[in-house]
Structures are given as structure tokens and as C-alpha cells.
Amino acid sequence: MNGWKILFRLVNIIKRKIYAYRPPFYLSQDKRYSQYDIGDYTYGKPTVLSWGEDANLKIGRFCSIASDVKIFMGGGHRTDWVTTYPFSDVFEKAKGFTGHPVSKGDVVIGHDVWIATDVIIMSGVEIGNGAVIAARSLVTSDVPPYAIVAGNPARIVRYRFDDKTIAALLDIEWWYWPINKIEAAWHLLLSSNIREFIETYKRS
What we know:
The protein is of the alpha/beta class and 204 residues long. Helices cover 25% and strands 17% of the residues. The chain is flat and about 65 Å long.
């Protein structure tokens, strides 16, 4: 076998290995997100942007994260200084100056949250359980449980359910159930029969 055939075979082997690789479906199993606190069964591939600030990312269970979602853990420029320019990041001689970039704190995303495509989430934001973030929204402040928000900046459009129903669902906390109990409840979880679900599984 000549050198070209050997090279061709090696290239094909490498290509097969590259194309055979598929990142894990669930975020909690993806090593690229191992430094974050990700709940089981949450899926998606958000881009997490951090510049070394002391901020943490926590995402609950059963969240649905669409494509091109960006989560900023910091990177804010100082609008209260004379200049917004990040001299300490760009100029070696300015490395001793601290306080830039800025983070507003941790990002906390609850359970059963749906984040649609092209959403941007800024640092310091908490998104409640069951919330929905509409496509291309910019989330700059907290989102209450079961709220649907949209826009730039994101504002509450409506709530998915009334206050009494939301309180009951938050009390049931189905996302903490063992998977066999969840499977047994699919006929109600995957339906609009909210009242029957609550009556069946409400805490005594």
C-alpha cells in the first residue's frame, strides 16, 4: 500500500470519528457545562459568556432551551466611571485596576422553563419555575413563576394560569418526582386538564 492510500485511509478514519461524535442531549451530561449547576433532563446548548466574574449559573430540571440562547454572567461596562472602556482588560499596564468588567450576580433559572430562540439573559436575573421567555427577548430583570415575557427589555405579557393554579403547581413541584412517577402522570402532564392534575397530585 502506497503512502497516498495510507493517508486517504487515515483521513477517512478521522472523519468518521468526528462525525460520529454527538454531544450529550442533556446539559447535565455535557462536560462543556460541568462548572455550572444544571438539573436533570434540561436540554439545549446555550452560550454562556463569562469574563472571570464571581457569578454562578444554576438551571433547574426539565427546562427547554432553544438555539442561539446567550447567558451573560457579566461583562458589563462601567457607566458610572469617566470612561466605559475596559483599559484593565486591554492594556497590560492597567491590569492592577479592578472593578471592570461588572457582573450583577448569579443567573438562576427555575424548573420547567421554556426559553425560545435568540433570547439573551443578563447577569443577576432569576427566572421562576414554569416561565416562558419568548423568542428574541432581552431578559434584564427577574421573571415570576409561570409568567410569559417578551420584548426588549422583556416584560410580562400574561401569566400561564391564575394565581390559585400557580400556587398549587408550585406546591406540587412535579419536577422533583422520581421519573417513574412522572411517567405514570404523563396522561395529565401532557394535557390541558390542569384542574384534574392538581386534584390528583395536590399535597394532603
